[in-house]
Amino acid sequence: MYKNWDLPTPPFWLALIPIVVTGVSLGFSVFKFDAQPHFSLFLGAASAGLCAYFYGYRWDTIKDGFKSAINRTIPSIIILLIIGMLISVWIASGIVPALMYYGFVFLIEQWFLPLILLFSAFMALITGSSWSTIGTIGVAAMGVSQGLGIPPAITAGAVVSGSFFGDKISPMSDSTNLTPSVLGVNLFEHIRHMLYTTIPVLIVSFAVYAVIGILFVGNGEGSDVSIYTKSIVDNFNISVWLFVPPIIVIFLILRKVPAIPSLIAGVLSGGVVFILIQGGSFTALFDTVYSGFVLESGNEETDALFSRGGMESMYNVVSLALISLAFGGIMDSTGMLHSIVIKLSSLVRTIGNLTLTVLGTSLFINIFGANQYLAVILPGQMFEESYRDKRLKLKNLTRTLEGGGTLTAPLIPWNSSGVFVYATLGISALEYAPYAVLCWLTAIVVAIYGYAGVTMHKLENDEPEENEDV
To answer: What pTM does this model have?
Structure first.
């Protein structure tokens, strides 16, 4: 939450000006002209800074706002660049092609989508990282889906749904640890309470992807995968040694080694495999790490499938992240987000309205703050007292924050999570969001539970709300 005590909270009308400017600009640039959202978010950040300045905030306060927001996410930006290197090296070394090859050979085609949902969920559960899962399993899944003739947006939706589900119920996930810690709720109580909403949604999502898989593959809509398997064998040496780098990364993450050194180990081990197994040179490796891997097989579909990655591929995404974070940081540090949230607090007379308001606030901050952590922390602090007043256990609030804050983050193109998915899988959130069933359906189910009073656990009699160790 903002920490400027020199001025009162800005009025609601003033806080709305940057929102309106950004919304109108995004409406024209993204939805009408199919342009990149960079300049629209820049206009939003500029208008937020100007509004704050003319209201009386010093330039140093405004500057510190966007600087602190960017500083908090420097590790995520570094991860973006490393993932770019990892993708290119793992393709060049044959790791991703090998995963795709065995996927083509052993896969039950009609069940690809529901199985990739579960596999992504399992990987994110044991690693605690949706990003690492999307950057490895997700990349291979996109290639397999192209061979099966499944639209890439649908596959991206299944990968994102599974990855964020596994991340949410993993005790090793940073965001899953952060959310209950904000309100002093026990971590495992928080996870167990989320299962009431996430498990039914997972079952529904599985069924949806099963039907889609049957429609696209079972009725002859799939492609001839032999084209891809032959191309992989012709251009890459397939060996069991190719699975060593993924095993190393998974082992390190399971040992709770932080994401950055774990992914660096994946890049380095992938480089070794590229040189020893694929016969690559150091010069080619250095070029691949920076500019990405380029395959020249003569087959346009195969070349397009495997030519990707590199640090350079992430520059557009990094610039978008920096601009969106600057916008959110200014809105937060000058109290304008706070002003909007206070206005929303008047809508919380019933438990259902309270739940819907928290969901809407988290989504709003995800859109205009572009940061899922802020979308959890700020509403959590603002609505804690409302939950206490209604004698609701705070694990109800943490579950709602996850549904509205964390799981909607990848559905927004300029949010850090949406940006990462676009950079990694090459599919915009606007394309895959309708198919990321678990992400948006969870928020709907949480709202229904709030209005119906399902699993909205209350404090018994005069039982105090305990702030348990997390």
So the answer is: 0.68
